[in-house]
Amino acid sequence: MEPFPRILILLVATLLASCTNVFEYSPYDANVHSHNLNTGHANTISDADTLPADTLRFAFFSDSHGYYDDLADAISSINARGNVTFAICGGDVADDGLVYQFQWYTSTIKNCNVPVFTLIGNHDCRSNGRQIHKRLFGPTSFTFVSGAYKFIFFDDVVWEKGNTVPDFTWLENELADSTYLNVVAAHIPPWDEQMEGLPRTLFTRIVTPSNTSLCLHGHEHGGVDKYCNDIHTLVCGSVNKRYYWEVTLAGNQSYCKQINF
What we know:
globular; five-stranded mixed beta sheet
């Protein structure tokens, strides 16, 4: 009977070794396999000198938390169409801010044929998520330039940061640069209840038609295409709604097309 326990021990050891991505030992684990993905993509895009100066097309999807199969289908659709320079995710990629949820997301977007820039959302800030997000993607507020356009990714999470006011001084300084046509991307729309009070007042005062051509948001899980504060504003629904926006910029004009997949 002695060989049986040895075989059983080997079987259990093999199963445990193969399941490192299944078991979450601690919600505060922050070990990640990739680092500074947004920063790396930004350098790649900014260094490209083959893009037309005043036209650009990109894909915009959002809120993939819990919908990773749908996210994979969205990435397949973006690859099949093959007509965008990059893609933007509007945040909320990890439902509970846990490391394995971030890794499910990154293992899916790595299959995209173009760079994917990832905003931080309020769900991403749960548990130890903010630290994980910073390690994976870099600073939670950042910018990059593509042709005539400057993309300003703004961390506007309020509730999950202890009801602290976002860094609007940083945003105002970035928008003060009149060299480029500005696109502002922030997870939470200014009209949402989480932006009530001072955050909403500051956002609408700082982000104006004179300095911003387009605003991008997620969070609401439903699509919006409207003008807010006289700025073309897009909210993308969660990926389980089975669509994303294909956005074309031409001069200071923006056009969007809903792509169902």
